[in-house]
Write a structure and sequence with these properties.
single chain, 3 helical TM bundles of succinate and fumarate reductases, mainly alpha, about 160 residues
Length: about 160
């Protein structure tokens, strides 16, 4: 009695329309974004902790000074997006590996823990990306309509 096994490379491959292998591209994204994140994080730590005068020098004025430059806005934007999408992709992989995939169709599928966890992950990731992006690009340390007594000391020179 001979037992034959299927080729392991043919199973569990997620393919959608067009024959794209989304798991492969997710795996590649994790490696590339991980390398870019290492560079961005060490640059962030160097500027904020070493060149910036240490933890005691980090305050509202330091952040306001950084966000006055478009370079730092784009730098922090890339750091935010790469880190959040990288982390969400990792959690998505854990959900796929350790939760039971939904069986059936319709309401039964929509109420499965697998679908609910992935939906919550997607929703929280989108909300955090939107809020973080808004903070980075709309940050104004000296709003014109604010009471002058409530503004930081460096804003008095502007008004």
């Amino acid at each position: 009695m001979a037992v034959t096994l299927d080729d392991p490379r043919t199973k569990n491959v997620v393919r959608r329309r067009g024959g794209r292998n989304w798991e492969k591209w997710g795996w590649i994204y994790m490696r590339v974004s991980g390398l870019v994140l290492v560079v961005l994080i060490f640059g962030h730590l160097f500027v904020n902790l070493y060149a910036g005068g240490g933890v005691s020098a980090l305050d509202f004025a330091f952040v306001a000074g950084k966000y006055a430059s478009p370079f730092w806005q784009v730098y922090d934007f890339l750091l935010l997006w790469l880190a959040l999408v990288h982390g969400a992709n990792g959690i998505r992989t854990l959900i796929n590996d350790y939760s039971i995939s939904p069986v059936g169709r319709g309401l039964r599928r929509l109420l499965s823990p697998h679908f609910l966890m992935k939906s919550a992950l997607l929703g929280s990731t989108v909300v955090l990306l939107i809020l973080g992006t808004l903070v980075i690009f709309t940050f104004d340390p000296c709003p014109a309509t604010s009471n002058a007594d409530l503004l930081p000391s460096f804003c008095a020179a502007v008004q």
